[in-house]
Amino acid sequence: MTGATGPTGTNGTNGTNGATGATGATGPTGSNGTNGATGPTGTAGVTGATGASPFSVISGSNYGVGSGNTFVIGETTTAATSMLELHGGSFAVDSTSLSTSTVNFATGNVQYSSTTSTSITVCGMQDGGAYTLALTGSLSGTVTIAASTGTGATCTGGSAVTVDLGAGATTFTASGTTSIVTFIYLSGRSTVYGSVISGFTH
Questions:
Q1: What DSSP letter does each residue of the chain carry, written as one string?
Q2: 48-90 confidence digits (pLDDT tens)
């Protein structure tokens, strides 16, 4: 017959660690963090040098551009000598309505006045400029045109400028209708040359 079981023996020593398992899959990307504070504004850079002729608007193949800050419009073969030069005609899209006998063309080169005065004074003209004045006040009799280098709505100050409406005349005869007076000012001759057409009924 079998004998009794003997006592349990002591535990043996631990075995060596097994090999490292494979790396697990990468987890999902985390959300972006908040933006950092805006840094201070940098110092302004130095101003660039001014160009010799900064601007030109050309009509045609020939034009002139002067040195410095010049602005040229139109056709010319001569270099510009002023800040703004216009070669060719200009078109004014607005007209100015008045009721006075003084006309300051500095506010527009096409104006019309309902004045009943037969003594008209014009001012505010630029050398070489062309201007048009419609006298709509149904003037009758002799109308006198004067010009000056004055300023403002009443053409105050300045000095008188010669007016020549043809053959040295400074007057014309109105017949109770609208008269159109066109002017060209030539400062080199200190003269405003004018031409009058009367008989318009509107």
A1: ---PPPPPPPPPPPPPPPPPPPPPPPPPPPPPPPPPPPPPPPPPPPPPPPPSS-EEE-SSS-----SSS-EEEE--SS---SSEEEES-------EEE-SSEEEGGG-SEEEE----SEEEEE---TT-EEEEEE-S--EEEEEEEEES-BTTTTBSS-EEEEESSTT--EEEEESSEEEEEEEEEGGGTEEEEEEEEEE--
A2: 776 554 445 555 554 555 545 566 666 666 666 666 676 655 6
